[in-house]
């Protein structure tokens, strides 16, 4: 558990294989850690998350929104963003919103969370 800008962030050590994994992690983060956000490394989400045509990212993000838990992707995805305009657009728009954030590291995530308060 990290406290970033006064926000409880559960830094997950679990990979997401499907939507049921996401729901279980949300429940665990909320009840066991009283977290408001869950942070994942890009590797924990897998390639399908970043290939928007698979629908995996949308399904996972929807679960987090539905259960009112923030989702943060923390790590370097610059190569993926450079290779996909739709992904680049989605990352940019997500970082303007409230439910999904992309950050290079926890320090950047903390700055983004601070800006939302």
Concise structural overview:
With about 120 residues, the protein is α/β, with parallel strands linked by helices. The protein is about 50% helix and about 20% strand.
Descriptive report:
The chain is an alpha/beta fold and 117 residues long. Helices cover 51% and strands 18% of the residues. It has a five-stranded mixed sheet, sandwiched between helices.
Beta strands, count: 5
What's the pLDDT, averaged over the residues? Answer: 96
Coarse structural class? alpha/beta
Which series of helices and strands comes N to C? EEHEHHHEHHEH
The separation of the N and C termini measures 20 Å
How much of the residues is beta strand, in percent? 15-25%
Question: Rounded to an integer, what's the Rg over CA atoms?
Answer: 13 Å
Overall geometry comes to globular
Low-confidence stretches: none
Helical coverage, percent range: 40-55%
Oligomer: single chain
Q: Biggest β-sheet, characterized?
A: 5 strands, mixed
Strand order of the largest sheet: 1-2-3-4-5
Count of individual helical segments: 7
Key descriptive features of the protein:
51% helix, 117 residues, alpha/beta, 5-stranded mixed beta sheet, 7 helices, single chain, 18% strand
Topology:
Elements: E1 2-4, E2 7-11, H1 19-33, E3 37-40, H2 42-45, H3 47-50, H4 56-66, E4 70-74, H5 78-83, H6 85-94, E5 100-103, H7 106-115
Parallel strand pairs: 2-3, 3-4, 4-5
Antiparallel strand pairs: 1-2
Helix pairs in contact: 1-4
